[in-house]
Amino acid sequence: MSDDRKEKQAIGLAYDGVNAPQVIAKGFDELAEEIIAVAKEHGVMVHEDPLLSDSLARLDVGEEIPRDLYIIIAEIIAFAYLLDGKFPASWE
Prior knowledge:
The structure is a single chain. The chain is 36% helix and 14% strand. It is α+β, with helices and mostly antiparallel strands. It has one domain (9-91): name from scop (3-Layer(aba) Sandwich), CATH 3.40.1690. The protein is globular, with a radius of gyration of 15 Å. One of its GO terms (biological process) is protein secretion. This is Flagellar biosynthetic protein FlhB. InterPro entries: T3SS_substrate_exporter, T3SS_substrate_exporter_C. Pfam families: Bac_export_2 (PF01312).
């Protein structure tokens, strides 16, 4: 019998506000669940997007995201900042 379920994956990114976001954690199945749980425990936004995670899963830990993902990652980071009540100084 074939198991057609897709493995769970989690890719953690860090952004220092200057350089491109970088992969800081990566895991599949049970490790993915642990990464997500730790992120949520620490108030880190978790965004689920299978296509994006498939692209990010190809990267190694420590690697910066590729240029072709800058816009989508920037939009997610900006949205996370807004949800956290952080706004650009020019908005005040």
